[in-house]
Amino acid sequence: MNRQELVHTIREKQSYLCIGLDTDLHRIPRHLHAHADPVFAFNKAIIDATKDLCVSYKINTAFYECMGIRGWETLQRTIEYIPEGIFTIADAKRGDIGNTATQYAKTFFDTFQFDSVTVAPYMGKDSVTPFLEFSGKWAILLGLTSNEGSGDFQLQRMEGGEYLYEKVLRAGTSWGSADNLMFVVGATQTEQMARIRALVPDHFFLVPGVGAQGGDLAQISQLGMNKDCGLLVNVSRGIIYAGNGEDFATDARQAAQQYQTAMADLLARTTQTVGV
Amino acid sequence: MNRQELVHTIREKQSYLCIGLDTDLHRIPRHLHAHADPVFAFNKAIIDATKDLCVSYKINTAFYECMGIRGWETLQRTIEYIPEGIFTIADAKRGDIGNTATQYAKTFFDTFQFDSVTVAPYMGKDSVTPFLEFSGKWAILLGLTSNEGSGDFQLQRMEGGEYLYEKVLRAGTSWGSADNLMFVVGATQTEQMARIRALVPDHFFLVPGVGAQGGDLAQISQLGMNKDCGLLVNVSRGIIYAGNGEDFATDARQAAQQYQTAMADLLARTTQTVGV
């Protein structure tokens, strides 16, 4: 999915919601365990119940990998089940040198047909650019993450005064364009968001950390939106585990609906300023 | 495998060679394609031919992941085929926040039974410590890598003058001990190696970059060895692709033998200094 299509979808659905399928076998409703593939049964119900309310699904690969080969089968069923026209993210945070990075890019773009994959910056340019060479595909580079550990390195100052994460953002914008590169910016980083948007005016941000991690949707949206919206706000546990009974999918839909309604409002308010 | 066992194995085999099974379906000898699982047939022959000469095998997961579910089956067959008493490394460079990091740790330590996994530091402490909570298992944290991109961030100076990679090494040693944490230090980083060993005297280093990437075994060993050897030097392409005919395994053995002989000599020379 290219940028124009993504922006069009956001406008049409009045939503920039990404739903995180961080599906943990031990947290899904008990009745699903009768299915041959309980995690897929769960994901299928969540997708059916929410696909008109979100513009993206993010699959956290760790939750699938930990089940071994069966987990990868579940991942494949899930990615194949996501309807056309929804932006798919492999949240895999891969990062390795050129030759190996190309293998990872093939994994997620060719073998599993994701639109995008999250990438870690530590190893530098030659670990990122191989992901930028696939037409219509995206790398989503870790910028400033939502976790406590973001203080350990990302929010440490470099010689000259800028934060490490700012150096990463600046380098990223020199490697990729707003058409093939996004950045991860955590919703808990409200103090930094305005600064980040000023530094990177055009790129999309994938924003995790709303909900369970305490990020505030309205605040982060007002600080982070650009003229094309420029945000994919991810919610995982707050939607997929909204309920835990037979009607868990209905509960998930209600939670997703609340986010979509809030987003439509935030888009309308910001429209007046930036013209989405 | 714990540290004592690893040091004992190094002493017994007179080797600190790690062989990287970065096996690419498109680079293995043609006659193997008749096998149901050509990559496993290749790995099996390499392991049979080299297992007495090395102390470790490193599996670069990217080369397996890119084949999808079949690739994970091959990875599982390979890890199960590696004999007891050889240190196994999942070169997966994972890095994500607490909850997700735990899933990754389970993947490689429980599901696939590796001794260790490579981990990326960018997300900080809570992305690393979950890997340190498994008894007898190891995290191998990226310190200073061998690729050109190591200059982009790792070799950039922080406020106060130290390099980012030094900050990562210092943080790592405060999170884990020499019994559950190693660091990746590229063999091409000879200028930094003495400084790194001074900063981190006790931990093992996984050293990629000898061979195809141009690192010099003798030089890096003399700079990096400590009293317990403290090095696992990885060679991938230089051994596994030493030959490309029917007798590729014999060629691989010859290449591995050359490294082992050189390592025995370097261990003996360093013994006189540090008493291995």
TrEMBL record, chains A, B:
Q: Which major enzyme category is it?
A: lyase
Q: Which domain of life is it from?
A: Bacteria
> What organism is recorded for this protein?
Chitinophaga costaii
Gene3D superfamilies noted in UniProt: Aldolase class I
Q: In which pathway does it act?
A: Pyrimidine metabolism; UMP biosynthesis via de novo pathway; UMP from orotate: step 2/2
Q: What is this protein called?
A: Orotidine-5'-phosphate decarboxylase
Which Enzyme Commission number(s) are on file for it? Answer: 4.1.1.23
SUPFAM superfamilies from the UniProt entry: Ribulose-phoshate binding barrel
**Family annotation (InterPro entries):** Aldolase_TIM, OMPdecase_AS, OMPdecase_type-2, OMPdeCOase_dom, RibuloseP-bd_barrel
Catalysed reactions, semicolon-separated? orotidine 5'-phosphate + H(+) = UMP + CO2
What are the UniProt keywords, alphabetically? Decarboxylase, Lyase, Pyrimidine biosynthesis
